Amino acid sequence: MLLKDIQSELKKIGIPIAYYQFPPKSNPKMPYLIYYDENGSERGGDFNICIVESDIKIELYANKIDKETEEKVKQTLRNLKVEFEVERLWIEKEECWETIFEFSIIDKEVSK
After folding, report:
1. Cα 2 to Cα 10: distance, rounded to the nearest angstrom
2. What would the mean pLDDT of 54-73 be, rounded to a whole number?
3. Which structural domain range is residue 99 located in?
4. How many domains does the chain fold into?
5. What CATH number is attached to the domain comprising 57?
6. What pTM was computed for the model?
7. pLDDT tens, 3-46?
8. Contact assessment for residue 56 and residue 104, using Cβ atoms and an 8 Å cutoff
9. For residue 6, which of 101, 110, 92 has the smallest C-alpha distance?
10. How far is it, in rounded angstroms, from Cα 45 to Cα 63?
11. How far is CA 68 from CA 10, 15, 74, 91, 112, in A?
12. In angstroms, how far is CA 98 from the centroid of its own chain?
């Protein structure tokens, strides 16, 4: 599974979504999603097969706790068969809720 596969499935939720951030001065009306790969590692011993691990974050921003959209994100991740953790924070400066979904994906790349 690749990041573009995750994006494709998240778009089906039907709210605005962007990789890393929306363009300056164009933040959409809440709720909206931001997703990105935070860290990653590559490993493999024979220079032909490389294991690529990426840590993914999906952030849901909403004016109020949005259980319905949270459940849609959770169901999307379940359908993708990823194990995930969820954390919810109040962002005082922005006066909104941020729900963070975190998980890792592992992909195998074969060099030619």
Report:
1. 13
2. 95
3. 3-110
4. 1
5. 3.30.2000.30
6. 0.85
7. 788 889 999 999 999 999 999 888 789 999 999 988 777 777 66
8. yes
9. 101
10. 48
11. 14, 12, 10, 20, 45
12. 13
